[in-house]
Amino acid sequence: MPTNPRPLILASTSRYRRELLARLFLPFEVAAPGVDEAERPDELPPVRAERLAREKAQAVARERTSGLIIGSDQVAALGAVFLDKPGSFERAFDQLQQARGKEVIFHTAVAVVDVATGLSEVRLVPYSVQFRHSSDAEITRYLRTEQPYDCAASAKAEGLGIALIESMRGDDPTALIGLPLIALSAMLRRHGMDIP
User: Fold this and answer.
1) Which of 74, 68, 86, 76 is nearest to 31 (CA)?
2) Per-domain residue ranges for the chain?
3) What are the pLDDT digits (tens) for 162-196?
4) pLDDT tens profile 75-97
5) Which residues are catalytic?
6) How far apart are CA 39 and CA 83, in angstroms?
7) Could you confirm whether domain 8-190 is CATH 1.10.443.10?
8) Farthest CA pair distance, the chain
9) Backbone angles phi and psi of 106, in degrees to 5
10) How far apart are CA 110 and CA 161, in angstroms?
11) CA-CA to 140 of 20 to 30 Å: which in 45, 65, 95, 187?
C-alpha cells in the first residue's frame, strides 16, 4: 500500500463514493460536507456538478489544517430536466418512464483541494446513457427488486439497472457510479500522491 505524507479526506457521506475511493488502496477519512445541494435558477447541469464538487471540498477544507480534500457531485439530466435521487418508488417510476428510449447525461465532477496551499482543481467527466424502451411492468419489477431510490436517474448500471440500458458512452465508467477514478488518480498524482 502506498504511503503519503498528507491525510486524504473524502468530503462525502455517499457509500458509493467510499467504495470507489477504496479501490485506490489509499488510506482516507470521510467527512460530511454539509453543503446545500439545492438547484439554482438557470444553472446548467455541468455547472451545478462542478459547483457542488468544489463547494463540498472547500467546506471540509475550512475545518482542516492539512490534507487533500476530495469533493464530488453528480447531476443526471434528461435535456433540461434534472433527474435527482428519487427517494421513493413513485418518483423513481416517473423518472424511468421519462428516460425510456432517451439519452440521459450523467455530469460527474470531482474536486481536489490542498488545505496547505489552497490550490484546487475541478474536473468534469460526463457519461452518456441511452435507456431502452422498457415497459411499465419492467420498470416496476426493476424498482421492486433493486430499490435504487438513492441513485440519480433511478438506475444502477452496476447492478440490475443495466437491463434498462441500451448503450453507454464515456471515458470513465466509475464516473457513472459517482466518482471518476481516472480523473481523480491524475489529480492526486499532481498533488504528489503515490498511486498505486
Assistant:
1) 68
2) 8-190
3) 999 999 999 999 999 999 999 999 999 999 899 87
4) 999 998 999 999 999 999 999 99
5) 73
6) 11
7) no
8) 54
9) -100, 110
10) 24
11) 45
